[in-house]
Design a protein that fits this description.
2 copies of one chain form a homodimer.
Chain A (H helix, E strand, L loop, with lengths): L6 E6 L5 H14 L4 E5 L16 H10 L1 E4 L13 H8 L2 E9 L12 E7 L9 E5 L2 E9 H17 L4 E6 L7 H14 L5 E6 H10 L6 E4 L1 H15 L8 E4 L4 E4 L17 H13 L3 H17 L13 H11 L1
Helix pairs in contact in A: 1-8, 1-10, 4-5, 6-7, 8-9, 9-10
Bound molecules: 3-isopropylmalic acid (2 copies).
One 3-isopropylmalic acid sits at the interface of chains A and B.
Chain lengths: 337, 337
């Protein structure tokens, strides 16, 4: 109830449609009487010399202090030398695991029924090392880094997640038949952790085969854990099975219990400010944040309201084939609470 | 007709189910009166010192001499230090482009209708460089190499393919937002080649988004060209859309007009020798080989016979839900000729 001392949480509304969908989250959370006090931070218009990026020092500090936050889409300013702000945030805050649940939304039909997948992506290294150079003219190389440290912690997170969420199986996704050393080390870490969870089924699946099986029969999988780029690819593929990134939440996990929930779709500048955006991914990410905070009752209440609104089908935004505005859709969710 | 001087072609029946499905191809080709003289080569049981692999020197020479061949699945002997024979063949013969058409087979229902995609994969470098090492204990790296030479030739092949096959669009698949130098060079080469084909629509698509769009709506794509690993992943994903690797052909293209058609599924040791294997992927690969040889009439005749047999549904192997043996299925195709 609103008399509880509010929990402070960082909010990055982000760019483009970000502020509108963040508004929707605030409205729904208020309607559900969630005792959250938002500490709002926007992307700066100039580089902050203390972070050397468009992310202000205060905003990073806010996440470190609150240990919990919610993030909308951030557009990276165009021009040479700017790294994606989404990535900068993950790296600066050492958000080592990216959890993306993909499940069929009742009432929203795709080619697939009853999808229920959790992808857990290593979020700090691999192909995202940023190490690249020209060897000679016309020959360039990129370096993929896999460490025991990062692989162990994401593997541990994945198995712990599986156990605490009543999941039956963890699949480690790899291409160790080609990258024997890097993906081999990743698998070795997964093997080691799997030993400690005899109750969880464990398998290793080559990424190409995994993608083929996912489109043929996603029910073969449950929790999937993998290096950074494979996670990037497979989480989008899985999102596609249930309707796309506009409908799927995510949460980034860091050391010391930090959790930054994030809508991973784009900032959709073409429809920004037009009250047309679908806030579902950010709302569901907000639900993940509430679950992380153990505010389970309100999390389930909001979750049901979102699901029921979409299932009912009366109020849907344009991306789902409807004609509702963001506000109408948000109001409908509040009415379902 | 059979009075034509036969064209010599190399045949690698391969391992596991390989010999059985190769037998099926020979039978169908004979029934269709294709004037091919097969030069058959098997994987050796010992390393050939002249090639330093289980591929004999004679077998490689045969492809170089005949400039055309057909290959079944090869199992790589287990044990340290053996590179995949499939890859060795691609590298040794400089087979720079791997073409994998994925199209819906009439009468074989999947979740997707009317899929018609061509993936063209760079086949010699990228993440498959084999360059890997341990930096310090617990830290390993793999090196991805992209060269202008290999990128140009695969891009040129893709656009030429699109033009000569009446295709409308080429999509270059990449992750240049992260690997700006390597994937950036790949894209730059595609850009350059695209300039020479103003009649072909050209777009660049980030791999994660590509996978999401492929599962949502494969009709958005036509010809896709990409670096090695992305090609590995996306070609399997596309195969999954239409039923899997048992149904999709491929052809490897090398310099000097060399073409080695290849069934890219596994050797399925569990069903080997049991007359249960589905020869479709190797048969359709054989059809690609015939088209490469401009034996278009017989290619279309055999193609129709395969398609019609599957569509009719009376004779299907177990993987397609039927009870036919390889022989029964093959006989049915011959009857449809
Ligand atoms: C925007 C891009 C750099 C990012 C990534 O590759 O991780 C995105 O695709 C994601 O998955 O969050
Ligand atoms: C067997 C394996 C090494 C190979 C590859 O990765 O290229 C296979 O997946 C393929 O696509 O032909």
């Amino acid at each position: 109830s609103s008399s509880t001392t509010p929990i402070k949480a960082t909010l990055f509304p982000g760019d483009g449609i970000g502020p509108e969908i963040a508004e929707s989250v605030k409205q729904v959370f208020t309607a559900a009487d969630v005792a959250i006090e938002w500490d709002e931070h926007y992307v700066a218009t100039e580089v902050d010399p203390r972070t050397n990026s468009f992310l202000t020092w205060e905003s990073l500090q806010s996440v470190l202090d609150n240990k919990v936050g919610l993030k909308g889409p951030m557009a990276t300013p165009i021009g040479k030398g700017h790294r994606s702000l989404n990535l900068t945030l993950r790296k600066e805050l050492n958000l080592y695991a990216n959890v993306r649940p993909c499940y069929s939304l009742p009432g929203y039909k795709t080619r697939y029924d009853d999808v229920d997948l959790i992808t857990i992506r290593e979020n700090t290294e691999g192909e995202y090392s940023g190490l690249e150079h020209q060897v000679v003219k016309g020959v360039v190389e990129s370096i993929k880094i896999i460490t025991r440290k990062a692989s162990m912690r994401v593997a541990e997170y994945a198995f712990l997640y599986a156990k605490t969420h009543g999941r039956k199986k963890v699949s480690a996704i790899h291409k160790a038949n080609i990258m024997q050393k890097t993906d081999g080390l990743f698998l070795q870490c997964c093997d080691e952790v799997a030993e400690k969870y005899p109750e969880i089924e464990y398998e290793k699946v080559v990424i190409d085969n995994c993608c083929m099986m996912l489109v043929k029969n996603p029910a073969l999988f449950d929790v999937l854990v993998m290096p950074n780029l494979y996670g990037d690819i497979i989480s989008d593929l899985c999102a596609g099975l249930v309707g796309g990134l506009g409908l799927t939440p995510s949460c980034n996990i860091g050391e010391d219990g930090i959790a930054l929930a994030e809508a991973v779709h784009g900032s959709a500048p073409d429809i920004a400010g037009k009250n047309l955006a679908n806030p579902t991914a950010l709302l569901l990410s907000g639900v993940m944040m509430l679950r992380h905070l153990k505010l389970n009752k309100q999390a389930e209440q909001i979750h049901s309201a979102i699901i029921n609104t979409i299932a009912e089908g009366k109020y849907r935004t344009a991306d789902l084939g409807g004609t509702s505005t963001t506000t109408e859709f948000t109001n409908a969710i509040c009415d379902h609470l």
